[in-house]
Design goal:
Bound molecules: NADP nicotinamide-adenine-dinucleotide phosphate
Strand content: 5-15%
Number of strands: 8
CATH topology of the largest domain: Rossmann fold
Distance between the termini: 56 Å
CATH class of the largest domain: Alpha Beta
Oligomer: single chain
Shape: elongated
Number of helices: 11
CATH architecture of the largest domain: 3-Layer(aba) Sandwich
Length: 275
Amino acid sequence: MKTINLIGGGRVGQTLGRLLAQCGQAQVQDVLTRSAASAHDAVAFIGTGRAVLNMVDMRPADLWLLAVPDDQISQVAAGLALLDSLPPALAFHASGALAANELKPLQAIGWQVASAHCLLSFASPQLALKQFAGTPCALEGDAQALAELRPLLTRLGAQCFDVRSEDKLLYHAGAVFATNFLPVLQDLAEQLWQHIGMPPQLVQQLRASLLQNAVNNIVKLGPQDALTGPASRGDTALLANQGQAVQDWDASAGLAYKALSALARQLAQRKKTTR
Ligand SMILES: NC(=O)c1ccc[n+]([C@@H]2O[C@H](COP(=O)([O-])OP(=O)(O)OC[C@H]3O[C@@H](n4cnc5c(N)ncnc54)[C@H](OP(=O)(O)O)[C@@H]3O)[C@@H](O)[C@H]2O)c1
């Protein structure tokens, strides 16, 4: 069985580590994080492996998953590349925005490198474990690395697809729009409702009902036909008044309202021209 070392044992590291251990296709060996407590927590969640606090103590492995924050990936790769005790292996990171060339210090000494980005909001390892089956996973990197990772991730339940290295930033921006901005928009809505004194239980109720309503409409009709509101009606006077009211309440929210209204108007126009 292949061995895998994890560097980073947070939400993604723990989830993928546990799935790898469960599917029995790779043996989770060493788990390195920044603090002793989080390495032990990760090993406890994964159910196997050895918590390690220093990179120099990591044993050679067939696969290396760098599940560290994006801004740590190149530094970790550079650190690994300095360790003479490690034979070349396959290293991959989990970033959506960054390409496999973040791992170029390893590639330069004969490692195979790739990125594998699972399109799931890993809010917590416990939740992500239950939600993982069927998750689309964007692969990019060396052909030999992808030939190995594709079947492995597929066995974990991922649906793998390819992304070009040069497209990764925009690919990931799509994911940011589709999922990361939703909580931001919901929070803005709730702040406005709280600001005008709506009862908290009504705000809570709207959180579920309006979001569900919007999701159902988008899934069923697509974004164009699901668009409602003043922008879809072309009510520019209301858009201007409302934009100003939001601006007076909060300058950043006002800018967001104006930018999103302009995009909503474009979407409404496209709706007309494609009919
Ligand atoms: N969360 C998501 O929804 C999601 C989805 C898809 C892809 N991703 C990608 O997955 C990667 C990891 O994200 P995450 O959400 O799992 O992060 P996270 O929950 O913040 O966990 C990061 C882990 O990396 C460790 N770490 C940080 N710097 C390190 C270093 N220099 N050396 C060793 N370990 C280090 C942390 O250890 P300590 O706890 O000790 O600090 C922690 O275990 C990122 O590339 C991210 O873009 C995330």
